[in-house]
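Fig. S4 source data, part A: sequence.
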Amino acid sequence: MKLIFGILIVCISSTCGFLFNSKSGPEWDSMRITWGPDPLSPKYFVRQPLTIEEAKKERFEQISTGCQGKFLGQRFMQGKDVSLILIYDSHGNIAGTQMGVSEL
């Protein structure tokens, strides 16, 4: 019985992979970050640049390069707003975000 169940699982897994083309990972076409009193409201979802080129066009400034300090990646922020720092990998694609708190 266990053998039949195992064969069934393998067949279903391989069929789903074939039908849904699981060889490639997800493709991200946008990234939005929300901050506001109603996180479900679409007006608070702000589009963020996915590449370094887009970030520079949107006037983000580079604050670190590569492996400086405690954080890896190329980090960008817009103006003096430390509440959102975008982190890009060595290929220039978004790798993550970082939040900061300004000193008083």
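Fig. S4 source data, part B ends here. The helical segments are 2-20, 52-57.
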